[in-house]
Every structure is written in structure tokens, then in C-alpha cells.
Amino acid sequence: MVDNGSMPDRAEPSLSPDWVDSILLAGDDADVCLHLDSPVTRARLRELVAARQAELEGHGVRAGGAVALRLPPSLAFVTNLLASWRIGAQTTLLDYRLTQFEIERALERVGAQVMVEAKAIPGGPLRAFFDVDEVIVTREGRPAATPHAVIQLSSGSTGPSKVIGRTAANLVEEINRYVQIDGVPREGERIVCLASMVHVLGLVGGLLYGLHAGVQLAVPERLTVDAILAAVAASERPTTLLGVPFHIELLASVAQPPKVPQLTGMTTGGELVRAEVHEAFVDRYGVRLGNMYGMTEVGVIATDLFAQHRPAVAPAPGLAVREEDGELLVSVPASPYIGLSDPTRWVDGWLHTKDAGTVEEATGLFTVRGRLDSQVSVGGLKVDLMEVEHTLAALPEVASAVVVFDGGIEAYVVLSDQDGADRIDEVLVSRLAAYKRPRVVHLVEQLPRTATGKLVRDRSALRAAEPKPSP
């Protein structure tokens, strides 16, 4: 790990704060652009953003300042984010589900001068949006040291999180990529967003694109099948679901869901949905299930929204992707990392994704083969841990699984059938070569996940999920 070097005391924004008005808030006053617990028109959103801007400025927030938001999905999150950007302040997004210890560590790294958080967070763990009152806390922070508009921390599914910055111009560039992608919702349609707006898919693919393109963004009351389908059915507009594989598995678990003719399809980010889950979803709902590949550092990189190329994806407009020694690289003009970073992650205009993959020269399509660190050697033979994991997860006895390498292949498994543990080894004998099979299968009640629903593959976190022996 090396430091990127000294930073100036203050950095100017890369794009005038006017971009918020011209790109995100412009439009017909009466247009309903958001629907959380109630509809919000553009005129009302502009009023709320202006009010929050005045409140933040009253607490000393200025252009080039640094704000942190620790707010759940809510109107408060949206208005404080847009207000901070309208001032020209750099805004760090912190997931409200982080512990206070994690929050303090993050604030030490980003140095926010002001933090906006909820006075209280009502409701249960399945709430998808909240009605909260926010409080502004002044801190002994420092002005923004870089020109980035938004700071995000990576999900940390395989290790410590990274501090990632994106400029306003970079966000606008991604919004314009969405505009050019065939299959995304268009003006007059709706997105029911299941992905967190703190993270890149929900933030840009849901909120920012929706505001710019005249696509109404709705959030279900709860992350249950009934509440999600009720949110879809709440309007006659054609509606696309936006989520991650966790949400697909949830929706596909219902054998006979009610018909929702408004639903035109679903787009999922994150890991590739397992084939059997993909088939179950399409069979139950009769709509397309598209895949999107992206990273916090870049946003959307490639898509296959009509499942025409599965498991391959096509690069998003304006992005170049190439393969080098089995790794996928994405063209990015500047390093997105702030502070301490691995110097091998961004080199000479290319971001090393750390994802294994292959690129078809004739078509430009590429296939993600999993994390590079999922490729291991067992007795001199190469094993893809993701292949083992998908094979395990496809067993009827298994609800979910994670496979890691710790001197040998080990699996952490949640059973769907508590009597099925003895059958796992027996079935794997016929499905995996001996050198690929886990030497140890740990049975756990629940697998750790990141805030975005990704399965955590950090071995210490997985070991902590194991049942403790009785004293």
C-alpha cells in the first residue's frame, strides 16, 4: 500500500454546481419524479433541496467543503445529497447500517466537516425506505482535498474497503452511458429500485438516471415479495425492477406470484445470477432478466439487458474493455482511489478489475469468470472456486454457499433441508472431480453479506459465522 502523495488544502469542483439544476432537477413542475411513501413532484423536490441547501450553508458548508451523509433510503437522503452537490461540496456516502466504530473509521479517512444523520431510524430490518428527521453535526474535519463530487467506500466483500472518488463530470458521463443503453427505462416509465442508493447501482442507475431521463423512481415499503410487487402494481406505467442477485433469489422463491402486467423486466447488478435462479425468475414472471456488470470505481461497464449473450456482456457505450493475462481491464483516464491505494489497481489509464475474464475480439463481448483470487491451484491443477460454489448452491439441499481456499478448498453452507447435510458429499461426487471437492463443509445458520447483499468471502468473517460450541 502506498500513499498517493500530498493533497492541496482545498480542491475546486470539476463541474459547476449548476449541473444539479440542469441535469437532475430540470423538468415539468408537475412531473412526479419520486415515489417513496408518497409522490414527490419536481417542483416540490426543488423546494426541498433549496431548503436543505440553506440549512447546510447555515452550518458552514461551502463550495469545496466536505459533507458526509449517514442516512437510510429516504427523501432526506435525496434532498441532502442534491443540496450538498448544489453548494459544490464533496459528499461521502456512508451506509446507515454500519456500526458507530465503522463510521468513525470512515470519517477519519475522509475528513468530513459536517455529517448529516437521522435522529432515529424507525421500522424493522426489511424496511426499504424510511421517513426520518435529520440532524446536522459539525465536526473538526477538513475541506475536500480532491475535486470529486462523491466519495464511496467499496463494499469490502473480499477485504478492507477502498475510498473511491468520482467527479461530477464522471457521474454525468455515466448518466449519458445509461441514456444510450438499449433496454433501460425511458421517459414516462418507472424504476422500482431495490438496490441501495448509497451504492453505485441504486445511486446512478436508479436515482440520478431516473431524475435526468424523466423516469419515475419508486421504492417499495419493504423488501418482501408482496411489497415489491405492490410497488410495481401501484402505477400503470411500464416498470423495471432494479436490484442485485439477492433480490432475484427472493422473488424467484415464490412458486406462483400474482400477475403484474406493468412489470416489463428486471435488471440485476453484482455477481451473475445462477442459471437455475435465472430460469426460475423468468418462468414465474414471464419477463426478461438482464445482467449489468459494473464497479463502484466506474459505474456501469457492460450490460446484457435482454439476456441475449448470457453469460457474456457487451461494453457500455464509450467504454473500452480489454483482457490482459486473463484479467479484465477497463479504460479509466484517472485513478479513482483516494489516499492509500494499491498502485497496481490503476496503471497508465487502465483500471485492473481483479476479475478474471475473456474478451471475444470479433464482437467485443466479454465474459466475467469470477474474481482472480477465486482461481487456485490444488495439487498443480487449476480450480475455479466460483464453479465449485455454483455447483454447491445448485443442490436442492443447499440454500446458499460460499467457497474459499485456506490451504485447501472449504465451503460454508446454509442448508435448505436440515436433513440434507449427509447427502451433500454424496451428490458432489457425481458433479465435481475429486480435486475440486471441498475438503471441509462448514454448516452455518446464515452467511455474512455486505450492505449491498453480496456474499462476503473474507475467511475471518466466515469463521465468525460458524456456530460456537456449547461451553
CATH topology of the largest domain: Rossmann fold
Tell me the count of domains: 2
Overall geometric form: globular
Strand content: 25-35%
* Main β sheet profile: 14 strands, mixed
Judged by helices, strands and strand pairing, the structural class is alpha/beta
Rg measurement, Å: 22 Å
Count of DSSP helices? 12
Low-confidence stretches: 1-13
| CATH homologous superfamily annotation of the largest domain | ANL, N-terminal domain
Q: From the 3D coordinates, which CATH architecture of the largest domain would you assign?
A: 3-Layer(aba) Sandwich
Could you name the key traits of this structure?
single chain, 471 residues, alpha/beta, Rossmann fold, GMP Synthetase, Chain A, domain 3, 14-stranded mixed sheet, 12 helices, 25 strands, 28% helix, globular, disordered N terminus
Describe this structure in words.
A hairpin with a 3-residue loop joins strand 13 and strand 14 (299-304). The protein is built from twelve helices and 25 strands. It folds into two domains: 18-303, 3-Layer(aba) Sandwich (Rossmann fold); 379-465, 2-Layer Sandwich (GMP Synthetase, Chain A, domain 3), CATH 3.30.300.30. Strands 1, 2, 9, 10, 11, 12, 13, 14, 15, 16, 17, 18, 19 and 20 form a 14-stranded mixed β-sheet that branches. 28% of the residues lie in helices and 26% in strands. By secondary structure, the protein is an alpha/beta fold. The model is unreliable at 1-13 (pLDDT under 50). The chain has helices at residues 18-25, 42-58, 75-87, 100-110, 168-180, 200-213, 225-233, 245-252, 275-285, 385-393, 421-431, 459-465, and strands at residues 32-35, 39-41, 66-70, 90-93, 114-118, 134-138, 150-153, 163-166, 190-193, 216-218, 239-243, 263-268, 288-295, 299-304, 312-315, 321-324, 327-331, 346-347, 350-359, 366-371, 375-378, 381-384, 398-405, 409-415, 440-443.
